[in-house]
Design a protein that fits this description.
One of its GO terms (cellular component) is membrane. The protein has helices spanning 22-33, 36-48, 52-80, 84-94, 103-134, 143-155, 157-175, 178-205, 211-219, 228-241, 248-253, 262-290, 300-310, 316-349, 354-375, 396-423, 426-433, 437-464. The chain is mostly helical and 465 residues long.
Length: 465
Amino acid sequence: MTQSNSVSGNGSGAARGLWSSRLAFILAATGSAVGLGNIWKFPYVTGENGGGAFVLVYLLCIAVIGIPIMMAEVFIGRNGRHNPITSMRLVAERNLSAPGWRISAIIGMIAAFVILSFYSVIGGWAASYVGHAAMGDFTGGTADSIGELFGSLLASPGQLLLWHTLFMALVILVVSQGLKSGLERAVTILMPALFILLLVAVGYATTTGHFGEAVSFLFTPDFGALTINGVLIALGHAFFTLSLGMAIMMAYGSYLGRDVSIGRTAVSVAIMDTVVALLAGLAIFPVVFANGLEAGAGPGLIFQTLPLAFGNMPMGGLFGTLFFILLLFAAWTSGISLLEPVVEWVEEKTSLARTGSAVLVGVLCWALGIASILSLNVWADVAPLAMFERFEGKTIFDLLDFFTANVLLPLSGLLTAVFVGWFVARESLKTDLALQGGAFTLWYNLIRFVTPIAVAIVFVYNLMS
């Protein structure tokens, strides 16, 4: 039950560093949200689920699930002014609630750590493909040759380890520099560069002769092609694409000034994240259609289908290189955000400084990533949970992906929504979120009723499907 005598305030972290501006936070939060999910997953799940109708449902889900939970997470971070776990505990205590609610942040931080371990492996794929594109390895390629290129990468533990190490080193390098010199400097360079590269890619896509077809595919609703399963996928993707349930927005929110509107800022991040996803579709689908390829090609769309297209198009080498640099930048900014919450916690709870904390957490995460690398080749036949029919044939990589995406993230998000919606004082929320009248009432009803139910549906569906 909501307590009316909550204590607001910054907590003992008043001297904590702050983002230099609202724009810096928006760029950082957008950098976290914009990742492989936007440029890799969104186009292919759109292709698999009928295009425009899926996009409409996805946008509705962003409004109903994504924005309310993002606002709740940022509120906790700013109100607590500490690492996510401590911030959750402090906000709970100020609202006369049990400190055990910090389990939400603990689950989120575990999820972020585990996700980064295999996300870094995929980021390494993007890094390796920058080199392949630049050296002309796609030029004149066939489906077999491109498939062999990708297959040889996955079959080589040494290559995967090299690129995984490089990617994780880039992430550690930025996070070790702290807020101003690391996170903020990186996102103010990488995010504008990412947008420019994406616009260049869209510009190139307009020359393929199939841009109109892509626009129609993305924005013309065909509800006959949208199944219940497609709706649930849109629901889940809207949740995951904004980096929710990973304690990231709590960590980033802890650096946010009190004069910044959480509501307007969260909406800005959601809009920018969605724009990137749609631009990625406009960049990718014209190339796919121009080459007579399958729009619903699954995860291989990025690493097998598009290289084939770039290898057989005018200036394909140049634009293929730019595209994979874009993909690498998106993965890098997300990787930075995944490492930050755990590093923030280690820095506050141990005697290690920022650099030592970043190196320790990063190396541990890198070590866990080796298991994912080996599961792609040497341990490809190892299925640790094969005794359960549901997990038969699932490798370590598959299991880490499944449990983080289908258990940890929705559980953390669900607990956060319930806590903020039902156990934090209404007036405290209204003041901190800087929402007035109907806007606050809408958000409050969403976070209390609609959002938890929607996340619970995704949670149960993913566990039972």
